[in-house]
C-alpha cells in the first residue's frame, strides 16, 4: 500500500498515521486519487451591454458576458449555487457532463427540474467522472442561452498528462450569436404568430463581433502569441441557430479532442463545429515573427431553405513584438484574411466529420457496444401543425412551421419529467409509447408525402438499465433538407457511420466503424442524409435529446429517454435534493 505513494504523499501518510489509528490507511490511498469539491456562485442578473452601436439589457451570470469559466479536474465535485435575480425563470445545463446518477443537476427545464423562479436559488451538485476536456454550460429554458453561457475546462487528474504535446498556453474560443433586439421577445412573437423568428445580427468570438461589423473594430477578440510556441484553443459553439466554419489565416490547426474526448490528431485548415459541440485544437505559432496579423474567422455552414445570418465574425491573431519594435509600425501591419468554404458546402462538412476518430489506446479505450439490445430508426426534420383556436397564424389555413422526430412534435409538460418518473406519477404527464420507427415509410430525402402534418405529444422511450441502443437518425426533405445537430443528455455515444440519401438497413451496417468511432454528445445529422450511433443506457434518469438549433427545439424537435434503475445500489438514481425547485 505505502509503496505506491509518492515521497511527499508518503511523508503526509506517516504524519497522518502518527495522529490517527492505523485502520484509516485504506482511505488514504483512495484520497490520493479523489477529487476536491469546488464551489461557484452564479448570480443571474441583468446587465447593460453595448454591441453594434446599440446598448441593451441582457441576462448574465455575475454581470459577465460571456459568463465565467468553470475550471475543475476529472474526479472533482462541483457545487454551483444559482440565484435568480431576473424576471425570467432560469435553469442551467452543464452540457456534456455525464451526470451519473445525478440527473437532478442536468438542467433542462421541465425535463429534469422545474425552473428556478425569480428570487429563488438552486445548488447544482455533481461529480465529474471519467471525463476531461472542454465542455460548456448554458441556460436551458426558452432562448436565454443567447447570453447565458460560458466554458467548462476539465483538466486531467493531477500528474496525468495530455496525450499530445503540452501546450505553452490555453485559450477558450467561444462562438456566440448576437441580436440587437431582445431574444425572448423574438421567440415569443414567433411562437405567437406562427412565423419564423428573426435571424441574428452578428456572430461573436468570446462575446466580441469584430471588425467586419459596423462600429465593432474596438470590440474584437485578440489572441497574442509568441513565435515557436504551441497553443491549445478550446473551441465552443454556443451560437443558437448556426453551425460554423472556423479558420485562422495562414495557420494549420491540429484537432486533438472533440466533445471532451481525445481523438486521433489530424491537421486541418478549417474546423466545422455545430451548436453544442466543442473542439480542442493545437495552433503552432510561426518560428519567425511575421509582418502581418491573421484573421480568426467564423461564419455559418447553412443547408436549410430558410434565411440565415450570412455574416462573419473575426478575431485577430497577433505576434508579440520585441520591446525594440515600434508601436507605430504595428498600426500598418496588414491583416490577412481567412478563406472559408461556401455556406452550403456539405461535402466538406461530411469529409471533416469523417476524420474524427477516437484515440482508442490502451489508456483511452473505446467501449463500443458490440451487441445491440434495441434498434431505433428516427426521422428528424420539419413539418407543420395547426395553430391553436385562439391564435391567428401567418401561414395558410392557420398552420405554423413545426419540427419533430418520427412525426412527433414534442409537447413540453408543465411539471418536470424526472420527478414524475421518480415518484411514479407519469399519468397525465408523459407516455412511454414513443415510436421506434416512423409511422409510415416514404422517400425520406426525395419527394415529401402530401400530408406533412405532425402529431404532437409528450412521448418518451423507456429503457431498462444497461440496454445497448443503436439509433439511426435520418434527415427528411420535408420543407427542405437540413443538417440537424442532435444532442443527447446524460451519455456519450459512438458515431458509427454517416451517409447521404436514405439509410439502407441491408447495406449500410457493413460501413459501421466499431474499432475507433468518434465518441460525442452532439452529432450533425447530415443534410439529406443519415447518421448511425450506439450508446449504453448505464445512467438511470430521464434524458433529453434534441436538435441544438434553438429554433427547431422551440418547434418541437426533441424527445426524451427514460432509463430505469438497475438492481445494484450504484445503478439507481439518487433521490432529489431538498432545494429542487417547484413548478
From TrEMBL:
Positions of the Plastocyanin-like domain: 44-157, 170-321, 434-566
Leader sequence segment: 1-31
Location relative to the cell: Secreted, Extracellular space, Apoplast
Top-level taxon in the UniProt lineage: Eukaryota
InterPro entries: Cu-oxidase-like_N, Cu-oxidase_2nd, Cu-oxidase_C, Cu-oxidase_fam, Cu_oxidase_CS, Cu_oxidase_Cu_BS, Cupredoxin, CuRO_1_LCC
Cofactor note: Binds 4 Cu cations per monomer.
Catalyzed reaction equations: 4 hydroquinone + O2 = 4 benzosemiquinone + 2 H2O
Keywords: Apoplast, Copper, Glycoprotein, Lignin degradation, Metal-binding, Oxidoreductase, Repeat, Secreted, Signal
Top-level class of the enzyme under EC nomenclature: oxidoreductase
Any single Gene Ontology cellular-component annotation: apoplast
EC numbers on record: 1.10.3.2
Any one GO BP annotation for this protein: lignin catabolic process
One of the record's GO molecular function terms: hydroquinone:oxygen oxidoreductase activity
The protein's required cofactors: Cu cation
Pfam families: Cu-oxidase (PF00394), Cu-oxidase_2 (PF07731), Cu-oxidase_3 (PF07732)
PANTHER family on file: LACCASE-4, MULTI-COPPER OXIDASE
Functional description taken from the UniProt entry: Lignin degradation and detoxification of lignin-derived products.
Stored NCBIfam families: laccase
The family this protein is said to belong to: Belongs to the multicopper oxidase family.
Protein name: Laccase
Source organism of this protein record: Gossypium davidsonii
